[in-house]
Specification:
Blueprint lengths: L3 E2 L6 E3 L6 E3 H5 L2 E3 L9 E2 L6 H9 L4 H7 L5 H14 L5
Antiparallel strand pairs: 1-4, 2-3, 4-5
Helix pairs in contact: 2-4
Length: 94
Amino acid sequence: MRTRIWRPGLVSFLTAKGDERMKRGDLLQRISIDPNICFGKPCIRGHRIWVSFVLDLLANGWTCAEILENYPGIEEADILACIVYGAEMSPHVQ
């Protein structure tokens, strides 16, 4: 099976450094779903770190800096990608 990449939207985000903007679609390219990796759960591309795990850390009060310190293989944009992915997957309530 092929790995899927999520690419909707064109909203841009500033990194914490404020020196670069990343488009929503660019961020979502950092998320992959492969049925042969992590049971097909959405992960940070190139890692076996689930999107839901990162969102759980944030929900439990972890800062981006704490996540980056404890998981040095990922980047701030990966954390933003997890947030964007979560937003894309949540139902839109009006």
